[in-house]
């Protein structure tokens, strides 16, 4: 089961894709930008896979921010 809560690895991967940011694995222990960030060097294999899945899922959906 993939954790899709706000701030999770999956959520951050999807958000990075949505905003057209580079693939940069990370996540937050709690609320995004309001809790400790966990970066690639401290991520488990499962967390890295979930980040990648979020990124890939959003890329496949083609759901991107439209900048005006």
Describe what you observe in this structure.
This protein is mainly alpha-helical. It has one domain (9-61). The protein has two helices and two strands; from the N terminus they run H-E-E-H. It has helices at 9-18, 45-61, and strands spanning 26-28, 37-39. A two-stranded antiparallel ribbon has the order 1-2. A hairpin with an 8-residue loop joins strand 1 and strand 2. Helix 1 (9-18) runs parallel beside helix 2 (45-61). It is globular, with a radius of gyration of 11 Å. The mean pLDDT is 97.
Please render the helix and strand layout as text.
Layout: H1 9-18, E1 26-28, E2 37-39, H2 45-61
Antiparallel strand pairs: 1-2
Helix pairs in contact: 1-2
Strand content: 5-15%
- Low-pLDDT windows of residues: none
Strand and helix order:
HEEH
Q: What is the average of the pLDDT values? A: 97
Quick synopsis:
This protein is mainly alpha-helical. The chain contains two helices and two strands; from the N terminus they run αββα. β1 (26-28) and β2 form a beta hairpin.
Index terms:
68 residues, mainly alpha, two-stranded antiparallel ribbon, 2 helices, 2 strands, globular
């Amino acid at each position: 089961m993939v954790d899709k809560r706000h701030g999770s690895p999956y959520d951050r991967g999807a958000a990075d894709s949505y905003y057209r940011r580079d693939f940069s694995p990370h996540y937050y222990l709690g609320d995004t930008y309001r809790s400790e960030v966990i970066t690639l060097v401290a991520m488990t294999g499962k967390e890295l896979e979930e980040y990648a899945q979020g990124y890939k899922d959003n890329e496949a959906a083609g759901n991107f921010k439209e900048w005006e």
